[in-house]
Amino acid sequence: MQFTDLKSQYAALKTSIDTRIQRVLDHGQYIMGPEVKELESALAAFTGARHCITVASGTEALLIALMALDLQPGDEVITTAHSWIATSETITLAGGRVVFCDTDRETFTLDPSKLEALITPRTRGIVVVHLYGQAADMDAISAIAARHGLWILEDCAQAHLATYKGRRVGTFGRIATFSFYPGKNLGAMGDAGCAVSDDAELAKRMAMFARHGGLSKGEHQIEGINSRMDGLQAAVLCTKMPHLAGWIEGRRRVAARYDKELQGVGDLVLPAVGANRQHTYHLYVIRTARRDDLRRHLNERQIDNVVNYPIALPFLQAYQYLGHSPQDFPVAHEHQRQILSIPIYAELKQEQQFTVISEIKQFFAAG
Fold first, then answer.
1. pLDDT tens readout for residues 92-111
2. Which listed residue, 159, 193, 227, 328, has the most CB atoms within 10 A of its CB?
């Protein structure tokens, strides 16, 4: 059984997607064409932001956002210890120094109670990750940021349409970034991303960074990079966007079935939903001390599963220079040995899901 089934999603929208792609092929504007402009307007409305800049990937959206925030040598940026490396590597690439914060035991997101102790005179901002499809505790984080005069950058790569107190993620910080990697809840057919902001000057700087330092061809006010979403990806995303809310409701139904059927099974800890939050279940992540044995059991039965992520960021070889130990991030270190993502997508059939559930129950029943 597949971990996710992108072919089924395409099959359901094949005629619409093929028509939109053919339109791009017919007019031949593959870079910065009408579909890109259409998508930027739609994404701004979708997120509630005044400005949207489409880029080539979610990682480059983070990098461009951090470049626009004008990090200087020695500037520190705090982020979560539990995420994909794009969250942290872009801080370094933009000229900052990454500072990791441990995570909340139940929601996997940055733990605000650990945050304030990490702030120094060199701290400039916080990159908050809404991990697995769930918002971080934005009231607490925002209060700390305001108290210390820090900006917030939201990494919403996995959290399209997730909410905190009824407010969508991407509306709490100075900038928010999104990924449209194919496996995301809203996915392109290749790499793609965007950054959104209410700040017109920041939006202008991000657009310039993404387009070789200028807004018009041949005019380079600053040095930048080439990070433009192509028209084919924009066409796909324009077609998919109206279906996103329905897909997320489908994911929630799958998650609710897992919650019901796996409650009390073995030592499983099921995903918790934090107070005042609506989870969008980009991933359904269980925890068990017997994770590796459970993985082998599922793999033998051809049920795909993934560990997101097997090594917490501070313990990666890339960050050995920081000299961290497990005692510095006890929750993230514990989670990396326990977490397991099991299949979840809107098209997952009930009988397929019950196969997953049955095999998990059989594993624990066998002792």
1. 999 999 999 999 999 999 99
2. 159
